[in-house]
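Risk register update: the risk of archive-format incompatibility is retired. Evidence:
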Amino acid sequence: MNRFDGKKFYEFGLMTNDIYSTRQDPVLKVAVERLPTDVYDERMFRLSRAHYTSFKKIILPEEQRMTREQDVPYMRPYVAIARIEELQRKAWKSKTFLKPFLVAIMEAFYRGWRQKYGKDVFPS
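Archived output:
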């Protein structure tokens, strides 16, 4: 049975973001390192409680289980920032950072110019 079928990890008190492995993805490792201390401590408590209950082959009582309403994607902003930084790092190493960056700036400039003045920057 797949561990995602029926949200089995809710029975162990885990959130969806708790089950992501930092060993497989270095971006997730960076995101976990950047979590605020209280959020990181709560995550580690849930993981240790899940390991203990799994080892003892018990399931948490209903009031201690996670519900869909309580399950929030708390790592989403940290993962997004870490992924953007990873892409920037790769672009910097490959020396291709300049062209997309300049293209984006020029497109934004032209778009703003057209909105402000209603004509092209360089009329033909």
